[in-house]
Amino acid sequence: MLLTCDPNDGEGGIKLLDELTTNAKQIQQQILESILQQNGETEYLGKFLGDHVINKDTFKNKVPVVNYEDIKPYIERLANGEPSNIICSQTITELLTSSGTSGGQPKMMPTTSEDLDRKTFMYNILVPVMNKYVDGLDQGKGMYLLFIKPEISTPSGLVARPVLTSYYKSSNFRNRAFSRYSVYTSPDETILCSDNKQSMYCQLLCGLIQRDEVLRVGAVFASAFLRAIKFLEDFWQELCSNIRTGNVSTWITDRGCRTAVMSILRQPNEELADYIEKECGKKSWDGIVKRLWPRTKYIDVIVTGSMAQYIPTLDFYSGGLPLLSTMYASSESYFGINVNPLNKSSDVSYTLLPNMAYFEFIPVEKNHDEEEASQGLQCNGLSDKICSLGEEEQQVMETVDLADVKVGHYYEIVVTTFTG
């Protein structure tokens, strides 16, 4: 069930979001039916469903909840050259490596070109939500510090790389339709630079040059944004020198970066260099973000789950700017968005979008087991975990559908996607 959302159509986007959440039960049923119809004859599902009628009941009764280790042999077979249809009817285009932010070793997840369209949908539907709460986002730019990470080629030729690297290098991102609400200070060439030091330097330089146009700043994770602040502490004098002279440092050797930055730098700007030197040269960096980018309305970073530890440091540097966690996503699937983005960090919750995947929930007794309880609370952070049950538990444990979860109860999430 592929949907599209025009980020420039605020009214249409909010209406679509209302329809998705209001009809969640029906849409989830359609998603599961679609997944089963497409993949019912794959080797993986076939061994459980056999000759049974392929529907929700047989899926619930015959297909067990598993963990990554159960799926891993199939993924390794894909990586070694076996056809996609051992697990997915569509062509697997690449393997996504998990970030490991939820603990444990990185995993590999199969994905298709269609999955990129689902990710794009979620980025687009965030725009009307943000516009509902923050005025004037079309009157400036976002300084988002985005990076790619190394990728590897598997024996089959499939590329294995992190989910965000996959998205930024895709045509969905590089050839994205123009939206006046999603203009970045960082040229694509600086985001797609494989040298993270050059990428960081050039993105910060572009952000400083365009400081008067910046309305929001951010990165994916809070930790990444704070790394950028530390980088700025180390390199602000050199950045000021570049702005003062109108030339980029000679160690910036990536041709795409140099060309893109020079198209923004254009000419010397002593007044801007003096101002940045004055602010960065002060003894305290309290509120440095607000001082350097005075029009900034908020900082867009994930500060839930394991990222919550960085909130006090972000508050110090931000000068009281709101910290907005807008999205809940992982390598396995994109899940949902924060429909009340201005809530305090401690009150953040995410609304799952029922067209992303088929979601089930395992009830967790809050005080039954401390470890299980803490895992159940990770619904407020990015998670790379597929929930699992033991062999005996699989026979007695029933999962709860998205439309049937109860307020105040704790759950672990189980996700079934079009690729596994």
What would your notes on this structure say?
- The chain has a domain at 135-168 and 176-349.
- The protein has 17 helices and 14 strands.
- It has helices at residues 10-22, 24-39, 43-49, 56-62, 68-79, 113-133, 163-168, 171-174, 188-191, 196-209, 222-245, 255-265, 270-280, 288-292, 311-318, 370-376, 391-396; strands at residues 94-97, 108-111, 141-144, 152-153, 159-162, 214-221, 298-302, 323-324, 327-329, 334-337, 351-352, 358-364, 400-401, 410-416.
- It has a four-stranded mixed sheet with strand order 2-1-5-4. Strands 3-6-7-8 form a four-stranded parallel sheet.
- One of its GO terms (molecular function) is acid-amino acid ligase activity.
- Keywords: Ligase.
- It comes from Papaver somniferum.
- Belongs to the IAA-amido conjugating enzyme family.
Keywords:
420 residues; alpha/beta; four-stranded mixed sheet; four-stranded parallel sheet; 14 strands
